[in-house]
Write a structure and sequence with these properties.
- The N and C termini lie far apart (47 Å).
- The longest helix is centred in the last third of the chain and has 24 residues.
- The strands form three sheets. This protein has a seven-stranded mixed sheet, sandwiched between helices. A three-stranded antiparallel sheet has the order 9-12-11.
- The protein has 13 helices and twelve strands.
- Helix 6 links the parallel strand 3 and strand 4.
- It folds into two domains: 138 residues, Alpha-Beta Complex (Aspartate Aminotransferase, domain 1), CATH 3.90.1150; 223 residues, Type I PLP-dependent aspartate aminotransferase-like (Major domain) (Aspartate Aminotransferase, domain 2).
- It has 395 residues and is α/β, with parallel strands linked by helices.
- The protein binds pyridoxal-5'-phosphate.
Length: 395
């Protein structure tokens, strides 16, 4: 019994993914849980986007669309990528998917043969690992650490290259770490990719959510990269549209027909109403993106100040909406800390292990609740940390 599905199921159930399910179950039996777990903010989709969705439904957007996505939306995606310093993609080289999440699996199935090596920074976004697992590719984890603020470097990539290296995944800004690879380093990493003929999957879904002077360099815009890069993104994060399920990927002409066909087989097309709403998001007023970014920036400061006061170190969050904190500093492993914080403090955060972390030291805290709720979460965390530290001083 060794088909791919069984192996995927084993990986999901027997490795660390089951922790999320277990925490969700625990949370469902508890009152007033402050959820800083999933990457799904409390923010509502901006009103003009909701209206566009409603109008589209009233106008009959209840059918399948062009399998690759509405032509208008693919044009808007092309313009949006280019206007933010990215490459210029022809609409024929863009596929709209039910969330960027599904795109990861399409890309993996289209690019990886058994034994091919997929290089991925670790900790990283776990569905990439599951997608590679499904294809029986070999996962090559590039271990990052807090000493370098979890930033990937060209040297680290180079040290993991073998003759079977095929795909490099870059998630920038990072999830779960919230760190941004400096643009010059992205350039150096791309030089390595060209030297070793790698395909780069560049996950830029958090690119609009960066803080201070940080900037996430679009990979395909760099010289010689568009022909070997698949850019993956979506509207979920920048426009508070997680539930609409619209993402996309864009890539070179030689790869896209096969990938588009796999997408078609999976989904036929992405939901019509979601696509019309995404079109309104990308072509309508953009102030909402800045408002969303500022909201996360404020929450980030509050959470970081609270962690400082508790003596819990964290990677400097430079983008996305997560704080990756070394909760093991409190004296217990991160998985235990998260479980205790949930059962004793009714605050849900996720241990780094579910993002492939090779230590049990870190937890990801999402900035998905309001400032008052984050402040309340910090008060509850303080009391759990206090109990743990007292126990430690007794033993
Ligand atoms: C790094 C990264 N990429 C892609 C996605 C997929 O988002 P969606 O499927 O909502 O487009 C997520 C979701 O959390 C993510 O964190």
């Amino acid at each position: 019994m060794t088909n791919a599905r069984t192996r995927l199921a084993q990986r999901v159930l027997l490795k660390d993914q089951h922790i999320v399910t277990r925490m969700m179950e625990l949370a469902s039996g508890l009152p007033d849980v402050i959820k800083l777990g999933r990457g799904d903010p409390d923010l509502d989709t901006p009103a003009h986007i909701i209206r566009a969705g409603q109008e589209a439904l009233a106008a009959g957007a209840t059918h399948y669309t062009n399998p690759m996505g509405l032509p208008e939306l693919r044009q808007a995606i092309s313009d949006n990528i280019a206007s933010h310093g990215g490459a210029r993609y022809a609409p024929e080289n863009i596929v709209v998917t039910p969330g960027g999440q599904q795109a990861m699996f399409i890309i993996a199935l289209g690019l990886l043969d058994p034994g091919d090596e997929l290089l991925i920074p670790c900790p990283g976004y776990n569905p990439y690992l599951q997608a590679a697992e499904l294809t029986e590719a070999k996962l090559v984890e590039i271990r990052m650490s807090m000493e370098t603020n979890f930033t990937l470097t060209a040297e680290m990539v180079r040290a993991h290259i073998t003759p079977r290296s095929k795909v490099l995944v870059l998630i920038n800004p990072g999830n779960p770490t919230g760190t941004v690879i400096p643009p010059e380093e992205v350039e150096r990493i791309c030089e390595v990719a060209k030297e070793h003929d790698l395909i780069v999957v560049s996950d830029e879904i958090y690119a609009r959510i960066v803080y201070g002077d940080h900037r996430a360099q679009p990979v395909a815009a760099l010289p010689g990269m568009q022909e070997r890069t698949i850019t993956l993104s979506g509207v979920s994060k920048a426009y508070a549209m997680t539930g609409w399920r619209v993402g996309y990927f864009a890539g070179p002409s030689d790869l896209m027909p096969a990938l588009a066909e796999i997408h078609h087989a999976f989904a036929i097309s992405t939901s019509a109403v979601g696509q019309w709403a995404a079109l309104a998001a990308l072509t309508g007023p953009q102030e909402c993106v800045e408002e969303i970014r500022q909201t996360f920036d404020e929450r980030r400061r509050v959470l970081c100040a609270g962690l400082d006061a508790l003596g819990i170190p964290y990677a400097e969050p430079e983008g996305a909406f997560y704080v990756y904190a070394r909760v093991a500093e409190t004296g217990v492993p991160a998985t235990e800390f998260c479980e205790r914080l949930l059962t004793e403090g009714q605050v849900m955060i996720f241990p780094g292990k579910i993002y492939g972390d090779y230590t049990d030291d870190f937890a990801r805290m999402s900035l998905t609740q309001s400032v008052p709720r984050i402040e309340e979460a910090l008060r509850r965390m303080a009391s759990v940390v206090e109990s743990i530290r007292q126990e430690q001083s007794v033993t």
